[in-house]
Design a protein that fits this description.
Blueprint (H helix, E strand, L loop, with lengths): L11 H9 L10 E2 L11 H9 L14 H15 L10 E4 L2 H12 L5 E6 L3 H9 L3 E6 L15 H6 E7 L11 H14 L2 E5 L16 H7 L8 E6 H4 L8 E5 L1 H14 L5 H11 L3 H21 L13 E2 L6 H12 L1 E2 L1 E2 L17 E4 L4 H15 L1
Parallel strand pairs: 1-10, 3-4, 3-5, 5-6, 6-7
Antiparallel strand pairs: 2-8, 7-8, 9-12, 11-12
Amino acid sequence: MNPNLEKLQPYPFSKLHALKAGLEAADKPHIALSIGEPKHTPPEFVRSELIRHLDKLASYPLTKGLEPLRKSIADWLCKRFHLDRVCADTQVLPVNGTREALFAFAQAMVSPGSKVLMPNPFYQIYEGAALLAGAQPHFINCVSANGFKPDFASIPESVWHQCELLYICSPGNPTGALLETAELQWLIQLADRYDFTIASDECYSELYFDEASPPSGLLQACKEIGRNDYRRCVVFHSLSKRSNLPGLRSGFVAGDAQLLEKFLLYRTYHGCAMPLPNQYASIAAWQDEEHVQQNRSLYRQKFDAVLDILDGCVEVSAPQASFYLWPRVGDGEHFARELFRQQNITVLPGSFLARESEGLNPGDEYVRMALVATLDECVEAARRLKTFCS
């Protein structure tokens, strides 16, 4: 058995289940704000496209994916991030949701004993991917004093020399913080200097609030410095949050063609080709923006309503993007436990999303609230939370 399995920590929601064990919740309808699972209605035209191609279940899909799917992704990337060109044949690879791709990428790209750097708090897949690849995770704290961005300047040069892969997440999960284009370009310079790959998790990039100012991305940062081969850089995108299609398990990896060539080789053996009906449905989703704009509008309504109610009763502010709130509440575990017991609301303690590093767990004083429920439920949750805090 792989001994690295013993290094894996319980998943955050297993810890949450244990935290709530034995508690009797208040006699009120339960409101779940813990899991980042979109609840808005999926686009009907995507569902129709999926059904229309069910006959394709009789055929094996190629790991590389359909050319029309890769073309639709390349076109979307160019339009969304103002890129000059993305080669659909060599610079795009469809995947079954970015969770499995973020994990698999480390297995193909890092050598045992190397370091994999990641934000802290973080999406736990980064840590598990590093450990099962035989690498050592190195956590970069994201604290309020730094705008909840990773404090890259705190990393010793000796760690950069050992780094083979850097995970970044912008917009950040759970904080919603954004890395600006200049910061991304500085990271690219570091990657050149120390010879590592940047894996940018951009799954929340389409959940922003100002239609005139969408978040930047790693490939966009490459383009602005003339790095049109996207060397050392790959991005991960998904239809789960953008299009409310978490069950479709559809996303993509794009960027450096040499890296993707090796990753495709790995995936060919891994046996993870996307089913053909899902690919056709994905083409339809990537080619439409109207449903994405409507999706953002629904989240804006919820953030406006919830933050208005919570004003003055808890230390929280709107994220720069994503659908999470990251309120500072003191003892996050105690807060989550008592909120469930007294108000029957489930939130996720921030400590479950982070590790102790540099003498602190940067999630200890926070909880993560995912505004994925209906507007009415989110408003009711905010009212109960205000009562709880008073």
